[in-house]
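Quick one: structure for this chain?
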Amino acid sequence: MTQSLTSRIEKIKLLITDVDGVHTDGSYFCGPGGEYKQFSAIDGLAYALAHIAGLSLAFISGRVSQATQIRARELNIPQDMVFEGYLNKLHPSVSYTHLTLPTKRIV
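Got it. Here's what it folds into:
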């Protein structure tokens, strides 16, 4: 890895991802018991490693879903870092300025 790439990577403090189609295959199932989504265990491991590396983590989703809330809790993503109901992921009402970002790298 080049020094330039390393220095750019070290500047990353926040990882925000969509949910449906990123952490799932994009499908969901509805039934009498509610909505179900299939999440990837591999993505869960990646989020755990990102957390260990000191990154702040967040979800933003166009759908409001209890399954997303449950998955966020499993991945230790705080409630105020889960943005639901935003089809436009760059919507001006989504403010990331309140987020507390790590000040030092955790190895």
